[in-house]
């Protein structure tokens, strides 16, 4: 499903180059659950952003299914992201001007789903995440943990082929964090490919394998 070859990310500041990722080769099969681990500054979140097509300033080859992402333009990459990828950001990235209900509806609006069916999917998701009572609230009316729950729900709602999660339980209580990881495990069992960045050995234990990064290099 994913094939990376010689992916590199570099910042050029005044003639001096700082490498964030170096010669990344990685294959991820459809249906895998992969954890990316490493110290702060090792390149984990940068790699996730490239995989999610949110960062276009890199070199190398990236294949998503049969698409050569490195040859695709920004519009084509955005279309792949909207259709096939759910992203859980460390800092939520909810739209402050929209209610919880409206934030959840956004990923569905990118697909050919009738309004009545969309409403049913949102209602089911609100119920599954126990946030029915929050549906008419705005993000700034929620706690950090509640915002993260909404962010995870938004990433999952359209049943994407790939879920990318950057520290998905970082702002949750341990019981909420366990619920999220159990949900990811169920989605993975149903065929969704999941890649998460985590510092938690406990969260990494849910995955099929771990990719370790150090100073931008894959070390295992």
How would you describe this structure to a colleague?
The chain is α/β, with parallel strands linked by helices. The protein has a single domain (2-218), classed as Rossmann fold (3-Layer(aba) Sandwich). The chain has 7 helices and 10 strands. It has helices spanning 44-51, 74-84, 100-109, 115-128, 144-156, 174-189, 201-204; strands at 2-13, 16-28, 33-37, 59-64, 67-68, 85-88, 162-166, 193-197, 209-214, 217-218. A 6-stranded mixed sheet has the order 6-7-8-3-9-10, sandwiched between helices. A 4-stranded antiparallel sheet has the order 2-1-4-5, covered by helices on one side. Helix 3 (100-109) packs across helix 4 and helix 3 packs parallel to helix 5. The radius of gyration is 17 Å and the shape is globular. The model has no long low-confidence stretch (mean pLDDT 93).
Key features of this structure:
single chain; 220 residues; alpha/beta; Rossmann fold; 6-stranded mixed β-sheet; 4-stranded antiparallel β-sheet
- Average pLDDT confidence is 93
Helical stretch tally? 7
N-to-C series of helices and strands: EEEHEEHEHHHEHEHEE
Q: Please name the CATH topology.
A: Rossmann fold
In short:
This protein has helices at 44-51, 74-84, 100-109, 115-128, 144-156, 174-189, 201-204; strands at 2-13, 16-28, 33-37, 59-64, 67-68, 85-88, 162-166, 193-197, 209-214, 217-218. With 220 residues, it is of the alpha/beta class. The protein has one domain (2-218): 3-Layer(aba) Sandwich (Rossmann fold), CATH 3.40.50.
